[in-house]
Design goal:
The protein is built from 18 helices and 9 strands. By secondary structure, it is an alpha/beta fold. It has 3 domains: about 140 residues, Ferritin (Up-down Bundle), CATH 1.20.1260; about 270 residues, Rossmann fold (3-Layer(aba) Sandwich); about 35 residues. It has a 9-stranded mixed beta sheet, with helices on both faces.
Amino acid sequence: MSLGTLVKTIQDIMRKDVGVDGDAQRISQMVWLLFLKIFDDKEQEWKITIKGYKSPLQSRFQWSNWAANSEGMTGEELIDFINNDLFPSLKKLATIAGVSPHGKVIGSVFEDAYNYMKSGTLLRQVINTIQSDVDFNSSDDRHVFNDIYEKILSDLQSAGNAGEYYTPRAVTQFMVDILNPQLGEVVFDPACGTGGFLVNVIEHVKKQFKTSKDSAKLQDTIHGVEKKPLPHMLAMTNMMLHGIDVPTNIRHDNTLSRPLKDYGPRDRVDVIITNPPFGGIEEDGIEKNFPKKYQTRETADLFMALIMHLLRPATGRAAVVLPDGFLFGEGTKTNLKKELLEEFNLHTIVRLPNGVFSPYTGIKTNILFFEKGTPTKNIWFFEHPYPEGYKSYSRGKPLRIEEFDLEKKWWTKRKQNEYTWKVSAKEIQDKNYNLDFKNPHFVDAIHLDPEKLLLQYEEISKKLNETREQLKKELMLAIGKQ
């Protein structure tokens, strides 16, 4: 059974359960079950590879002891065990003192998890399906976890809320390739969703490994925060499947809830790569965590203030996805852009076309690349074109990583072409820090030679008159026949 089919099979079983209402609950239920299976598979590995490894779980709460036997607990006994024994025990791991890092990972995942299923018989069928068809110690099964991941995200989208934390894989990979994070650099995604950016960073940095200690170094330098329980659970699972065995640096929290002044030199990072939520409004009081000039309830603006603050002086660099509204917006946005030009080198803005985030949102977006420490002299704009024959992207025709070869070839030897243009910091300052510069090479049909336009107009008018006369004749003919 393919993993895509596995997800559908599990969801079909869950649809029969009266306790599970809608896609979001089905996905949440499936993710915590998959997490426990993955954790159990990893524990089998850790017992061999980690000297003196001791499970943070009591024996009866380990998947292999309560779930693995297809003839094991079922019906009311299973539901009672999960609701009254398993979940309370796992949730406690988030708060009790002296828990091992592995235990903290479980506690963090189950802090806001919930068992929606009411039928122990159907739950047993789901467990048996997972047990028989998924072995995460098999490199093949681990490799195609992306199938599960993409299917879950697709289903989340139909539940109406995936756009908040999904960035197309081609965009994440391009941003990582350009930033080129190095082993030992601290990388942070303050709104990490299901972990897409961080997974790309992990795969990128793994190519630099030279010794057995490099894996531990990578684990220490990958950081993320996610506010919502379900994407956080997916991110934790995703990290474990990509070699971050103890992802305690992926926190379940609201990054914006900590006052900006409380972040000191130790909190600075080398690389920030993110797609912060945009269009959202933060709860009352969150804006008070920021200096007056940045106080707004608009989520993306607060994230930009945080990102700029957290980058390490002189070496910090970032790539951030932002909507068009940030480029031309005023008020707090103007204050942010002024500081961005004065204290950062905002060297490149890649303008993405419509449909890149389809079907999650139709909002036009941009990728801002900047470095901390030197003021901006010029900004290069790169308008990413559609492939030949495309008028937009869609789920069936998504943006592909190969398309970014245009940007990559241009990046180090920059010259103006039909997709690129350069604007000075002075021009931007004169426009009150409006960054919404259109492609000057694009010639719309309205700019054609006026004489040609007049000829086109006369031709169209002539055809309209001919059609009108023909209709009049037909109408008179019809009246005459009456």
